[in-house]
# Entry
Amino acid sequence: MSESIADPSDFRRQRAGGIAVASLLTVGLWLGVDRLMSPLPGMDSLADRMLFTLKCCCVAVLFCLMTDVEAVAYEWLTSLAFDSLARFETRRLRVNQRYLRNTVEQILVFGVSLFGLAAYCADGAEMRAVVVTTVVWIVARVAFWLGYHRSAALWCSA
# Structure
């Protein structure tokens, strides 16, 4: 068997462990933010809830999308990848580019879902769900990115 092909049982074990850890951390983070955060003031109108949700989407883009745009730009500017005709590509650059593409795809689903969630919230107490969803999404994206750099099995579980 070639060295480049990973043992499937090891892949499954890593992935199962990653999913278990991610699930526990997600539930803990969700419950922690939901229980410790006080209700948001001024969330009685739909317009106020939608504006707040837009702000949450912007924070998610800032922390997830822009950080990777910076990482890809850094790789391009500090290596031969600057010349796109040279076809120079490191593993780190490939991972960052794929994470960037995946984040662009996921931000659309996240944004639409977050606005849908906010539309169902009636007040500031229920709007904590928008905040905690944003926090969990950002943390999960960072875990996805870090896991992707470590192991394919880990990034698949985030």
The chain has five helices and no strands. Residues 1-5 have pLDDT under 50 and may be disordered. The two ends are 28 Å apart (CA to CA).
